[in-house]
Specification:
Largest sheet: 5 strands, antiparallel
Shape: globular
Number of strands: 12
Structural class: alpha+beta
Radius of gyration: 20 Å
Distance between the termini: 64 Å
Order of helices and strands: EHEHEEEHHHHHHHHEEHEEEEEHHH
Strand order of the largest sheet: 4-5-8-6-7
């Protein structure tokens, strides 16, 4: 690990000013991903600006019934929060499916969103990787890519985003609050992460020096049900081969009036299944309709030599999750 400077920020303005003043600086939260990448030589910051002690850890109910989650809230605390468990079970399920209990006790909300791919070629500095060194090539394309993307990838990069939490937040229509040199701004969760295109080194739409300060969840519709399900090689501490987060609401006639479907483990970002959602809106959640909607979405998949199995895996996960939610919604008591 190369030597680096260290600064503990006491406020957002101080942190942003320090980032502008120190070329090659990085923000440090829980450090569960950044420190590992520094040990591997993938990240070589000249300075670390510690923002972990800024007052950004609060989980607060909003006047409209939504929730504002501070970016330094720990994953374990967020998963156990009573309002998250009661109103947004898909988020609790996703958090508990990610990493070990020890890591969840350290990892932060903002850091979870900003974690980088676990592609082994990205983590190995002896291999070419466009994400790590733009223009060097993608070793994964002709190498071992069983775990890599089947949706939205490009000639430059086939990596997947590793977060479980981000998949659930995309299904919940969350917003991300940011603070940087130009002040505050808000970005929709579904627009926060990028597809690789010709610039896979850019994971997100963050501008230089910006800090994730909070995640805002809208009010949970009273009749909506949600679920997260993940397929992985082993039951403990493994990243998703494919995952699904879904939110479903039926009208009084039993038709779909709101659906959000997001895949994880299939693309460079959480993949919002807008084609499937459009197909299901206004339809009855029959087995045939669910099957056709998911098939239409996954028709966009472009599997590689070794990961075609992900398409039927994701298809079966999505159909099962949606069917489970439909049964729950149909069984739920209706408001008089």
């Amino acid at each position: 690990m190369k030597p680096f400077a260290y600064l503990r920020a006491t406020g957002l303005q101080e942190a942003v000013a320090a980032h502008a003043r120190l070329p090659g600086a990085c923000y440090l939260g829980g450090g569960t991903n950044l420190v590992d990448l520094m040990k591997l030589g993938v990240e070589t910051p000249a300075a670390l600006i510690d923002i972990s002690r800024l007052p950004l850890h609060e989980v607060r109910e909003l006047p409209d019934g939504g929730l504002r989650i501070g970016s330094t809230a720990r994953n374990s605390d967020l998963a156990a929060h009573p309002l998250v468990r009661a109103r947004y079970p898909v988020l609790t399920q996703a958090l508990l499916a990610g990493a070990s209990g020890q890591l969840r006790n350290v990892a932060t909300t903002g850091g979870n969103l900003l974690q980088r791919t676990r592609c082994p070629y990205f983590q190995d500095v002896s291999k070419p990787c466009n994400k790590r060194r733009p223009g060097s090539g993608c070793a994964a394309r002709d190498g071992v890519h069983r775990d890599h993307a089947v949706l939205g990838h490009s000639a430059a990069c086939i990596a997947t985003h590793p977060s479980d939490m981000a998949v659930a937040l995309a299904a919940l229509d969350a917003d991300i609050e940011l603070y940087g040199p130009d002040g505050e701004r808000t970005v929709a969760m579904t627009a926060f992460h990028r597809l690789p295109g010709d610039h896979p080194e850019q994971d997100t739409v963050l501008r230089d020096g910006e800090i994730v300060t909070a995640v805002v969840l809208p009010t949970a519709p009273p009749g909506a049900v949600s679920l997260y399900r993940k397929a992985r090689d082993r039951a403990s501490y493994a990243f998703a081969l494919a995952s699904v987060a879904a939110v479903l609401e039926l009208d009084d006639g039993g038709r779909v009036c709101r659906v959000r479907l997001v895949f994880g483990g299939l693309a460079h970002r959480p993949w919002r299944a807008t084609t499937a959602e459009a197909r299901l809106n206004g339809a009855e959640p029959t087995a045939a309709n669910l099957r056709e909607a998911v098939e239409e979405e996954l028709a966009q998949a472009r599997p590689l030599r070794d990961n075609a199995y992900k398409v039927p895996l994701a298809r079966n996960l999505a159909r099962d999750v949606l069917a489970t939610l439909a049964r729950r919604a149909q069984a739920a008591p209706r408001n008089p």
